[in-house]
Amino acid sequence: MHPDISDQQRRYTLFVLVLVFTSSHVDRQIMGILGQPIKESLLISDTQLGLLTGIMFALFYATLGMPMAMWADRHNRRNLISFSVFLWSLMTALCGAAANFMQLLLFRIGVGVGEAGSNPPSHSMIADLYPPERRATAMAIFGTGINWGILLGFLIGGWINEWFGWRTAFVVVGLPGILLAILVRLTIKEPPRGFSEASQSINPPPAFWAVVKFIWHNRALRHVVIAGALISFTGYASVIWIPIYLVRIHDMGTGEVGTYLALLIGVGGAIGIYAGGRLADHLSGRFGQHWLPWIIALANLIVLPLLYLAFTAKTPMGAIIAYAIPAALGTLYVAPGFALIQNQTPIEMRSVAAAINLFITNIIGLGIGPFSVGFFSDYFSTAHGEDGLRYGLMTTLVVIVWGIFHYYRCGVAIRTPEPAHVTAP
Q1: Angle, helix 254-261 to helix 132-164, in steps of 10 degrees
Q2: pLDDT at 413 over 80
């Protein structure tokens, strides 16, 4: 054991990083439960709502993530994470003061700028603390932050909106993150680079385009990045628009919707992502690393028909029941995918590799996914009224099939030796 990092500190670091990831998803996903009240208050279209929840947020979040990741591969990752938490929490609280669409859009961009500096250094730190055979489980524990964030965002946001309005909800969920930023800065210890793989030599961090080239020429990395982006397209779209769909089409209150989805996506999804990480570690350890992507492909074969039933349900309870299993399995791709990228990437380029993956995933998934639903909802509404949102959601399902194909191809690539020229720069 490295003298600078104890087992207790390693577990504590992972715990705090889960809190950080939770905070980011509270502030990011609260737009889902508050979407309909914001639409009615600011008199905006579904396309504009898609801009707020999708492409404009994701563009700044994903683009700035890469230079911040390059900084993280060269400097202190803890300090970058602390600053990022402070910035996105402040911007979230300020969303409550927005008087019009443009002001709210600028504050949401500010949230995206803050969140850009969190994930890549967090992935790199976890990879330093946990060896490959335990990494998917560690990433699964970290990944539950998505679900805890959705749980808190939907539950708190839904009821605070009913009691005090959507503006107060932003302030209530935003301000505690400032205290979390202080906790990160004062209590987290920066782990040594390559701590979990001390036998490996650590080269100087390569240039950005060298990392891009490495990922592109590694077939497994190429397929898993594409697959993750496609699966997240439907995942992010449904998380943002399912609460709006339940409020608008099934006439449910935001508090009631927030409570149901907090249980389904929050608790159920956290169990799903953790179990998926454990199962991926077990299968890959027993049968080979190719099971990391294959377990995701199998889960999405189950999700696909159930999402269709949820989007076409005639009753609110029918929609909620059909959505239960997709909610639990919706983020299962996160832990095996993150672990696979760290496993396949040399130590000195891990933050940047994570940032490139997140850039592609977030532009396509977080950005285009919710925006496309808003765009198609407005398009289909001219002929189908409120049911236009159903058709907008259903357009995302074909993307799941495409993603499953790439996860399968990723597993095949892992089982087949890479060409001789694929080496770290």
Answers
A1: 160
A2: yes
Q: Cα–Cα distance between 339 and 401 in angstroms, integer? A: 22
Rounded-to-integer distance, Cα 317 and Cα 7, Å: 45
Tell me the C-alpha distance between 238 and 319, whole Å: 12
Residue at token pair 């790199």: 124
CA distance linking residue 263 with residue 239, whole number of Å: 13
Is 314 exposed, middle or buried (CB count within 10 Å of its CB: 0-12, 13-18, 19+)? exposed
Tokens standing for residue 52: 């707020």
- Any idea what DSSP says for residue 77? H
* Structure confidence at residue 357 as a pLDDT band (50, 70, 90): confident
**DSSP secondary structure code for residue 366 in this structure:** I
Q: The tokens 């715990």 sit on which residue?
A: 15
Least Cα distance to 210 among 394, 353, 407 occurs for: 353
Tokens representing 306 are 């159930």
Q: Six-digit token pair at 213?
A: 């080239």
The residue whose two tokens read 């705090």 is 16
CA distance linking residue 64 with residue 42, whole number of Å: 29
Label residue 66 exposed, middle or buried (CB < 10 Å: 0-12, 13-18, 19+): buried
CA distances for 322 relative to 150, 230, 317, angstroms: 19, 22, 8
Residue 301's contacts (CB-CB under 8 Å, 6 or more residues apart) are 404
Cα angle, residue 393 at apex, residues 113 and 119 outer, rounded to 5°? 25
Residue range 162-205, pLDDT digits in tens: 999 999 999 999 999 999 999 999 998 888 776 656 555 556 77
> Tokens 């590694």 — which residue?
218
Model pTM?
Answer: 0.78
Single-letter residue type at 400: I
| CA distance linking residue 192 with residue 115, whole number of Å | 24
- SS3 (DSSP) at 389: helix
* Domains with residue ranges and CATH for the chain: 7-191+208-415 (1.20.1250.20)
CA separation for the pair 345, 161 (Å, rounded): 44
Residue with tokens 């995701």: 296
Span 205-246, pLDDT tens digits: 788 888 889 989 888 899 999 999 999 999 889 988 999 999
- How many CA atoms within 13 Å lie on the side-chain side of 267? 9
Nearest C-alpha neighbor of 254 from the set 99, 96, 30: 30
Question: How far is CA 90 from each of CA 96, 99, 425, rounded to the nearest angstrom?
Answer: 11, 17, 39
